[in-house]
């Protein structure tokens, strides 16, 4: 952000000093109706199964209270905070190829918006209910475009999301975790290679390198599209065989500062994919255990939102207030911990990383992996 208060869009990694960020809202959030991408994602024993419709108002109000408090915490630290303008998520999504009864929400901007340098890219989204989610952020994109002459507002090609985009094998309710783990180890996911698909939350930024998870929400064609779209970057596909529901990388692989990454101990990066990090003296450490043994009610996410943290700078990190083991680990790793109460908002789209999207971090594009 400049001295005049005008917008500068610029962010190259996950840890440079954060100066401007978008924090989501829980407004009008819906549990989406059944669709192929969603059915594969919802755990078979989840209380989400068979439920859809607008979330209860008292839970929306509570989540918004926590999100508003988080935004205030960031502002008190001198960080500019913008918020989305919620559209009516009760409106069905209808295209010539599909229709769904409702949409989702606008709590997790990280899922939709990928900031690389002076560009903010709207992801394709691989859930039908999330096809129009970018509209919640369009007023902000227009504002940034008017205020920052270097800002590039980009949007990936909208996918058709026909049935050809999804493997029918995943539509059985009773697949079982053992078979799911076998399939994910074989890189057989619910999404096919019909057309490019990616969610922004599957991408981690390491300066010149982008690390992208191949899983339920991002396919190889989506990764190839990103490779062509960012020709000055090196784009690396990774996967985590221990995850039976591989969606979004930020509760599995969390860079804290140059040279240090937390990795979910249940979903370790395979040995052959560690080489790039090892050659460049990056340390990959197992994350601390979650403080909870189950997610909150009506929540898609796993207990590993404990490691879904927001790094404010290489020495400061926001950790969910109840995640005491994660906070202890951060302290031992030399990080100042900022406690944020957010657990009652998890169900609306995730944790501290999910509910934010970078606009401006101080710093330039660096090569953190010079040894190839």
From TrEMBL:
It is an enzyme of class 2 (transferase). InterPro entries: AmidinoTrfase (IPR033195). It comes from the Bacteria. GO terms for molecular function: glycine amidinotransferase activity. The active site is at 199, 248, 354 (amidino-cysteine intermediate). Belongs to the amidinotransferase family. This is Glycine amidinotransferase. It comes from Planktomarina temperata RCA23.
């Amino acid at each position: 952000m400049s001295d005049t208060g005008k917008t500068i869009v610029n962010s190259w990694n996950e840890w440079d000093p954060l100066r401007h960020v978008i924090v989501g809202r829980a407004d009008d959030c819906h549990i989406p109706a059944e669709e192929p991408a969603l059915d594969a994602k919802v755990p078979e024993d989840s209380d989400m199964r068979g439920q859809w419709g607008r979330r209860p108002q008292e839970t929306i109000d509570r989540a918004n209270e926590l999100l508003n408090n988080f935004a205030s915490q960031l502002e008190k630290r001198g960080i500019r905070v913008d918020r989305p303008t919620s559209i009516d998520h009760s409106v069905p999504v209808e295209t010539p190829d599909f229709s769904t009864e409702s949409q989702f929400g606008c709590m997790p901007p990280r899922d939709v918006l990928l900031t690389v340098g002076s560009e903010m890219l709207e992801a394709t989204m691989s859930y039908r209910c999330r096809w129009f989610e970018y509209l919640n952020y369009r007023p902000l994109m227009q504002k940034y475009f008017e205020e920052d002459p270097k800002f590039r507002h980009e949007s990936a090609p909208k996918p058709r999301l026909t049935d050809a985009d999804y493997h029918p094998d995943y539509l059985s309710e009773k697949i079982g975790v053992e078979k799911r783990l076998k399939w994910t180890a074989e890189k057989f996911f619910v999404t096919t290679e019909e057309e490019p698909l990616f969610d922004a939350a599957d991408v981690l930024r390491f300066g010149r390198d982008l690390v992208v998870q191949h899983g339920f929400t991002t396919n190889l064609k989506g990764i190839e599209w990103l490779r062509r779209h960012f020709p000055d970057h090196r784009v690396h596909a990774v996967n985590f065989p221990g995850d039976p529901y591989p969606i979004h990388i930020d509760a599995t692989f969390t860079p804290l500062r140059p040279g240090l990454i937390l990795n979910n101990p249940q979903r370790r990066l395979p040995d052959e994919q560690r080489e790039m990090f090892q050659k460049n003296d990056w340390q990959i450490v197992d994350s601390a255990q979650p403080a909870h043994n189950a997610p909150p009610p009506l929540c898609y996410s796993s207990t590993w939102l404990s490691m879904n943290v927001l790094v404010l700078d290489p020495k400061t990190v926001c950790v969910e207030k109840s995640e005491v083991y994660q906070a202890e680990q951060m302290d031992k790793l030399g990080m100042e911990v900022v406690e944020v109460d957010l657990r009652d908002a998890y169900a609306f789209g995730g944790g501290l990383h999910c509910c934010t999207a970078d606009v401006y971090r101080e710093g330039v594009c660096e090569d953190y992996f010079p040894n190839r």
